[in-house]
Amino acid sequence: MQELSLTFVDSISEIGAATWNSLATTDNPFMRYEFLHALESTGCTTGANGWQPMHIWVKSGEQSVNGFDNTVAVMPLYFKTNSWGEYVFDWSWANAYKTHGFEYYPKFVTAAPFTPSVGRRIFLNPSADRNNILSFIVEKVKEKAEFLSVSSWHVLFPLEQEHEEISRLGIQARIGTQFHWYNRDYEDFDHFLSALNSRKRKAIRKERQHIQSQSISFRVTEGAEISEQQWLDFYLFYQSTYLMRGMQGYLEQDFFNTVAECMPEQIFMINAMQGERDIAASLFFKNDEKLFGRYWGCRRDHQFLHFETCYYQGPGLCD
Description:
By secondary structure, the chain is an alpha+beta fold. It folds into two domains: about 5-170, Gcn5-related N-acetyltransferase (GNAT) (Aminopeptidase), CATH 3.40.630; about 190-310, Gcn5-related N-acetyltransferase (GNAT) (Aminopeptidase), CATH 3.40.630.30. Helices cover about 35% and strands about 20% of the residues. The protein contains ten helices and twelve strands. The strands form three sheets. The protein has a four-stranded antiparallel sheet. A hairpin with a 2-residue loop joins strand 10 (about 265-275) and strand 11. Helix 2 (about 35-40) packs antiparallel against helix 9.
């Protein structure tokens, strides 16, 4: 049997971009090294705000495995002292623990921080014994959890295959619901509308006409072309979304500047304008197959502007 060792590291930089991305790849923008490192380097994921990195790095006793170094698996892991930024509502669990005299925090979380997007969470060398390594990771996480008095380990928004694999290893399942839009080979927006019933078609057309009647136009800017002023305006818009709910946004201005520099090919921005003035913006991430609408904000509330900017304007959906 392959000899394995597992290390918990307090920064993804200890693993390095080449090693991490050789397994995780850059297909999922929220799991690639550059995104996770940007969160760490700009202070978004730290122990102070409840996201202490404790990433898992598994190596074999061999010097090289199929052209890789001796790394056979990596996995994001965070030592969490609150539930903010997970987009999974488990505050009631914390209250239940407290009611029965137990501590819910700290807990372990494997996730893309601040991002409720489904994707792979455990990244293995394709030539490695997957079942053996997954079992090894689960065993070591449980040991670490017991040592640190961690209440539980949460793997958020994994792929179906991973869900089934770790469920077979004794991890209890928690089922949630998400809504995804699929392009069914629509030729343009009207083609998409034709697939809906008349009531929904009428409602969407009415929403879009309302935006047009206010002389609001839109422009799309690819990551490398987004100007400094656009980023400054966007950050104010982004923060306004949280301030309306009495909160501060989780992400820093420096985070957005960093991802703009290190992964511009996977982002673009849609700005809504009245005249020459930007009044709203939405930031998207992408890969070759999928579009991820993530962050949005506006100067002031405009009816239907959110859906128009974040959903209807997306490439592949609009004509």
